[in-house]
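Lab intake sheet, docking and co-folding queue.

SAMPLE TYPE: protein with bound small molecule
LIGAND NAME: S-adenosylmethionine
LIGAND FORMAT: SMILES
REQUESTED OUTPUT: full 3D complex as structure tokens
PRIORITY: normal
SUBMITTED BY: R.K., bench team

The fields below were copied directly from the construct record.
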Amino acid sequence: MRRSSGCCAPVWNCRRPWHGRRSSSFSRRCGIRRPITRPWRAGCRTGGRNVREWVALYHTHHSLEAEDQAFWLWLAEQSGGPVLELGCGSGRLTLPLAQRGRWVVGVDRDFDMLCYARDLAAHSGGRSPDWVQADFCHLHLAQRFALIFLACNTFSTLTCREQRAVLAVARRHLTGAGVFAVSMPNPLLLETLPPRGEPEVETVFAHPESDAVVQVLSEWRREGEVVTLRWYYDCLFPDGTTRRHELTARHRLQSLDSLRDLFEQAGLRLERQYGDYERHPFAADSPWLILTARSSTD
Ligand SMILES: C[S@@+](CC[C@H](N)C(=O)[O-])C[C@H]1O[C@@H](n2cnc3c(N)ncnc32)[C@H](O)[C@@H]1O
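RESULT FIELD (auto-filled):
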């Protein structure tokens, strides 16, 4: 996953409503907990103008249609205990979970994303999540969680080694009856894409911080077992100037059987396979593959 003037991972056709606010004291106000597993990154960004704009655009775009939110809230409700979100980004899901009274820990390695999330939490009232800046592949927390999840297609953008590491982290941090869940684009569906999709306008929304209009274009390339999705966020300002931010995500296409093996090797037994956020069973033409699992040895 790469961003060119900000950062973060992928969304596959996700559009959701803007609910965020930001203050100008973006990074200064971050009381984010230091990483447990690694020292505070010496060279971490402190929220330059373009990075701050990027995070706000990312959050706005990903909040346009929060089709997955009800699903994660439901899963947290079912689990009945503390929640750990790995790769929590701008807090799009972490915050609503905390606002419903859950104790939630959001982990992300991206300092700017966490600052943004922290700022949103400060303005939204209610219970605030705990934020941890860390690589989730090397996470060691003292607590265990009833639900651990990676949302928004993050799991399929990880390398095989990262997937193994994050599964081990999940296994280590789950309570005995805890649930681990990940969502990804349906690999069977991605396999049927033509090799190339030319840029198309995906959505248009109001810039969260100025009078500009933001147009989001997306395109894809499919090469063997990898589909690369690219988004262009074009900010069109009233004075005629433009600014572009880019986001790239590479999804590895893995069969359900190979995912099941991977989970089993980590001591996790697949429990449910949903095909969408309304909890329909997974099928070849489902938009998503959402997996839930439990420890196989507890
Ligand atoms: C697609 S975003 C999802 C954000 C949020 N979960 C949501 O649903 O809007 C993926 C997030 O995972 C984070 N991430 C990716 N790899 C990571 C790693 N190894 N450790 C910690 N965070 C990671 C990225 O920084 C990014 O914020």
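REVIEWER NOTE: The first strand starts at residue 2 and ends at 3.
SIGN-OFF: pending second check by T.M.
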